[in-house]
Amino acid sequence: MSDADQDAGAAPPRRTPGGLLGRAAFTLLVGAILVFTVFPFLWAFLSSIKPNAELFATPVQYWPAHPTLENYRLVLASGDFQRALLNSAIVAVSVTALSIAIGSMAAYALGRFRFRGRSLVLYTVLAMTMFPQIAVLGALFQMVNLFKLYNELPALVLTYLIFTLPFTVWVMTGFLKSVPVEVEEAAYVDGATPFQVFYKIMLPLAVPGMATTGLLAFIAAWNEFLFALSFTQTPEKRTITYAIQSFSATTSGAFEIPWGQMMAASVVVTVPLIALALIFQRRILSGLTAGAVKG
Q1: What are the sequence ranges of the domains in the chain?
Q2: Side-chain-side CA neighbours of residue 78 (13 Å)
Q3: Which CA distances in Å does 107 have to 35, 159, 193, 216?
Q4: Per-residue pLDDT tens for 147-179?
Q5: Residue 261 burial (CB < 10 Å; 0-12/13-18/19+)?
Q6: At what angle do helices 118-127 and 153-177 cross, to 10 degrees?
Q7: Are residues 240 and 229 in contact, defined by beta-carbon separation less than 8 angstroms?
């Protein structure tokens, strides 16, 4: 019998107790992280389908005894909530589009051209993400008043760019730097201008980077609360986070917060973000220059 036949008929290697223990520990760690991540959303969903009598029952009822969709009906029937959803969609889409459009052009210049002070500009852009929102709130409030944008949606679009644009520039610069120089040189040899190289060559190769930064910019703009609270006032200009915070009801002269409706609104607001993450997951995880250069 040859060595190859002996190897083919050999029994699979036995797993050592240490290896089994390591796999079990890894499985428990992944399970704990999954529970920690999913439980808040699951609890919000369960709370949203509970009647008000079960929300504060003693002992705690983890599973609703009489599930109901009344909270969702009340939330979706609210004109203020519908308007807030529309406002958030307008602001988030506008911020995402501007971040990608401006950020990709800035990243192309920083990532593909050499000029004096390039590193300083790049690290200055990165430093802008280190300031907390509250630190720049006063200056932004003065700027919004100067441009007469208070209580207008463009005020939110303008101010949200201060935390979405630097991140977009930094990440897109790394993606564009990774594009092989041969791709760019081949386009120049064929007579392409720098702008043609940018939008015909670089942007298609940077789609995974744009998907990642665009999704994160959309999530950041969709979930933002401090600037929405500071720069808008009337209900017709509120975004969804401000609208959820404003949920209230008056019963027998007492101030009461409708937790069931708040949980239903939170679930409704979270579903679009989950859908976007699932839709763009392949773009996010795909390789940047797969098949771009064949050697």
Answers
A1: 13-68, 71-285
A2: 22
A3: 38, 20, 17, 17
A4: 999 999 999 999 999 989 998 898 888 888 888
A5: buried
A6: 130
A7: no
d(CA 259, CA 115): 56
What pLDDT was estimated at residue 284? Answer: 65
Task: Say whether pLDDT at 272 is over 50.
Answer: yes
- One-character DSSP codes across the chain: --HHHHHHTSPPPPPPHHHHHHHHHHHHHHHHHHHHHHHHHHHHHHHHTS-HHHHT-SS--SS-SS---HHHHHHHT-HHHHHHHHHHHHHHHHHHHHHHHHHHHHHHHHHH---TTHHHHHHHHHHGGGS-HHHHHHHHHHHHHHTT-TTSHHHHHHHHHHHHHHHHHHHHHHHHHTS-HHHHHHHHHTT--HHHIIIIIIHHHTHHHHHHHHHHHHHHHHH--HHHHHH--SGGG--HHHHHHT--EEETTEEE--HHHHHHHHHHHHHHHHHHHHHSHHHHHS-SSTTT---
pTM: 0.81
Q: Which CATH class name applies to 71-285?
A: mainly alpha
Give 57-114 pLDDT, tens digit per residue.
Answer: 778 778 888 888 999 998 989 888 999 999 999 999 999 999 999 999 998 888 888 8
CA distance 106 to 209: 14
Q: Which amino acid, one-letter code, is at 164?
A: T
For residue 254, the cross-strand partners are 251
pLDDT at 237: 92
